[in-house]
Amino acid sequence: MENIKMVDLSGMNARLKPEIDDAIMRVIASEKFIGGEEVNLFAKELCGKLKIEGGETPYVIPCANGTDALQIALMSLGIGAGDEVITPAFTFISTVEVVALLGAKPVLVDVYPDTFNIDCEAVEKAITKKTKAIIPVHLFGQCADMGKLVEISKKTGVPIVEDTAQSLMSIYCNGSGLSGRAGLMGKFGTTSFFPSKNLGCFGDGGALFTHDKELAKKAKAIANHGGQIRYKHEVVGLNSRLDAIQAAILRVKLPYLEECNLARQKAANMYDELLKDVDGIEVPKRDANSTHVFHQYTIQVSGNQRDSISEALKKDGIPTGIYYPKGIHHQAAYKHLGYRADDFPNTNYLASTVLSLPMHTELTNLQQTRIVERLISRLTK
Fold first, then answer.
1. Based on the structure, what is the number of domains in the chain?
2. What order of strands is seen across the sheet that includes strand 354-357?
3. Range with the lowest mean pLDDT among 20-34, 47-61, 141-155, 228-242?
4. Is 165 strand, coil or helix?
5. Given a cut of 80, is residue 1 above it in pLDDT?
6. Mean pLDDT, to the nearest integer, of 198-223?
7. Which ranges of 51-157 would DSSP assign to H, the alpha helix?
């Protein structure tokens, strides 16, 4: 029986092994392991990749990981104790973690039940005089409704920090004047190069994006102990530098990113076709205003059978993921925020129904057919 993986990096790693080996040896020979030419070249090359034809060239600031990228963005905006930051209740923990670490208050809002992205009307209602940022998470591979969010930001003066960890290279275009790459429509965008991401390194890595030169300078300083000149520390900072070996590996993989995203989109299209008209399964909605790069292919399973199906598929040799089994308001670390269990009904519903199927560049038609056949066979009639 063919081994099916939730994430399969082996194929790409094998294809790129000669280039990756050369890149790693180049860094070792240089003896420059922190910062240096590889990191600078990666930032420059990622700038070129993110830039849309006719658009403004962004600044890219590499850092140690995606969580740090969010924290550096908030620190660059001066967010701290007494401030409020709006985040979705349905997200990975780091989105709110960085807010709490700075002494600010995470203000949770619900998400849309079909796209999984932040509810813009709820965002607008949650804004107070203390609100200092909005963090939309472009979840699973497609953009939040940036048209509405940018409108809210302009009206209120509250900056947007886009969490683009799962949607690098996705494009938003609402037909009414706003178009842009995920992470480049707000004040800051952030991303992660965790190994399983569409663009992943061989450890941890992250980056920030902005069009604001002064914010870019400040973020770069914060990521390097608060200064850009050795032993001259202008602001309070972090030790959050992307190491040169990871940068060199990312430079090898970056030219193949669109190809990888296309492979994921092709796999998603096949899942859509195989799962259409299957009772009890809702396939992911493609937002008309956003491209989808399918970091995850996340279905919804009705009838209170998600967990049993996940366990049954595991016995069949088919891995699945549950992203996420709890809303932030149900996490013990954030009980002090005082939310009721039923404050975010869409988040609660999604936490009980979402199921992510294997999604990566190496999926074969045969594997996808088997995954769906076993999934359908496990559904309660």
1. 2
2. 281-282, 297-301, 354-357
3. 47-61
4. coil
5. no
6. 98
7. 66-76, 94-101, 120-126, 146-156
| Single-letter amino acid, residue 2 | E
Same domain, 54 and 179: yes
The rounded Cα 251 to chain-centroid distance in angstroms is 19
pLDDT (average), residues 240-269: 98
Instruction: Please state whether the peptide bond connecting residue 324 to the residue before it is cis, i.e. omega within 30 degrees of 0.
Output: yes
The length of the chain is 381
Separation of alpha carbons 271 and 321, rounded Å? 16
Mean pLDDT of the chain: 96
Residue 281: its H or E element: strand 281-282
Q: In what order do the strands lie in the sheet with 131-134?
A: 105-109, 84-88, 131-134
Question: What residue has token string 């967990």?
Answer: 307
Q: Write out the residue range of the structural domain in which residue 287 sits.
A: 257-378
CATH number, domain containing residue 109: 3.40.640.10
Mean pLDDT of all residues in 102-121: 98
Residue appearing with tokens 């992911």: 284
Q: What is the CA radius of gyration of the chain?
A: 21
Instruction: Note whether 204 and 75 are same-domain residues.
Output: yes
CA–CA distance from 67 to each of 97, 163, 283, 312 (Å)?
8, 10, 29, 33
pTM, two decimal places? 0.96
Dihedral sign for Cα 267, 270, 276, 279, please.
Answer: negative
Contact between 196 and 249 under an 8 Å Cβ cutoff? The reply is no
218: Cβ contacts below 8 Å, ≥ 6 apart: 76, 235
In a domain, 3, yes or no: no
Token duo for residue 22: 């050369």
Q: How far apart are CA 13 and CA 253, in angstroms?
A: 9
